[in-house]
Each structure stands twice: as structure tokens, then as C-alpha cells.
Amino acid sequence: MGEPSLRSAQFTPPRTIPQLLCGEGLARNVAFISNLMESGVEFTAVDFPQTNRLTVHILAAVAEHEREMISRRAKDALANAKARGTKLGGNRGKIHLVAKKGALARAAVRSSKAKRRAADIVPIVEDIRVSGAVSLRQIAAALNTRGIRTSRGGAWSAVQVQRVIGV
Fold first, then answer.
1. CA 112, 114, 115, 119 torsion-angle sign
2. Are residues 25 and 41 in contact, defined by beta-carbon separation less than 8 angstroms?
3. What pLDDT shows up at residue 108?
4. 3-state helix/strand/coil string of 19-38
5. Same domain, 79 and 29
6. Containing structural domain, residue 24
7. Same domain as 68, residue 118
8. Are 8 and 79 in a shared domain?
9. What keywords is this UniProt entry annotated with (predicted)?
10. DSSP 3-state assignment of 51?
């Protein structure tokens, strides 16, 4: 099992001793680093060129400890959240039901917004009708002339007017 950060490490061609040129975060596993050391690989850290075998070993031990502490804190936080009654995760086996519920909720929100918008536009349309506009095209033209835009910021058409006033 290799460490993911080794994929980004650059191996220099072997001379007499294999050399591993590495950046930050080579490994958080002391055993892995120890095995590399035992195999005779020399380490050169790009971000800390003064490093030696002892330093690499110590930093690996600290990184391993840090990984374990992060894991413990995450597990404790999840356990605390669960104890408070927070629902964790989800039932991925019934995602289609959740998606349907979300689609229905979105449709309800869109419908509510459309009704509020129509309620704002209808009095303006009535004023336009009083001023002599009879057809849906005339009403749309009057809305556009007044600079009133559709909910998406476009120009009005007869079909949009028809939908808003519910004819």
C-alpha cells in the first residue's frame, strides 16, 4: 500500500544510493517511512533541505500523531452531534424519493414567487387596459414601453401577459 503523496514525488535516477525528492506531507505513517529508510532510500525534502534521517522519522511520527488526533476529534464531534439528536447521513437507497420531494418543494417555491409577481403586475395591466390597450400584444408593448421587465429581466410577449393575468 503506497501513500498518495508518493504519486507526486519525483524519483531521481539511481546513482549509487536511491534518492527520494519529496515535498510537504510525504507520509503520516511512521512504519511506511521506516520501511523506506530501511530500504536505503535517501530523503531530500524540497521545503526543508537540511533534513536528515532522524528529522524525517520524527516528522513522520508527529504527522502520524496529528492524523490520529484529527480522526479522534472528528469521531468525537460526530458522536456529540448524534447525542444532540442531529440526523447524520442519509438513506441513499431511496434517493429518488428525496429527489421527488425536493422537486415538489422547488415547484411550490416557484409557484409562490410567480403568484406574488403576478399580483404586482395585474394592477399595472389594469391601468394599461384603462388607457385603451385591448389585446395581449398591446398590453405587452405597453409594459415594455414602461420599462417593466419580466421576472427574468426580459421583454414581455403576449403569451407571458396571458399567463400572468390568467386569461
1. positive
2. no
3. 94
4. EEEECCCCCCCHHHHHHHHH
5. yes
6. 4-83
7. no
8. yes
9. DNA recombination, DNA-binding
10. coil
